[in-house]
Design goal:
3-stranded antiparallel sheet, alpha+beta
């Protein structure tokens, strides 16, 4: 079963409407999902906050 891990982020300070970034990784199996999520989490820029994390 393939899952897409998605993290949506935005600057923690001074963010305006539309100032967000979504990063996605497609995983081949559910077992790969945690590793993909850790990869995305490591790519969140310093000073940015996570708005949502989801699998779909």
């Amino acid at each position: 079963m393939q899952l897409t891990a998605t993290i949506r982020t935005r600057p923690a300070e001074g963010a305006k409407k539309g100032d967000s970034l979504a990063m996605e990784v497609l995983t081949e199996t559910a077992d790969d999902y945690d590793a993909a999520l850790a990869q995305l989490d490591a790519r969140v820029p310093d000073g940015w906050q996570k708005l949502s994390v989801r699998a779909h």
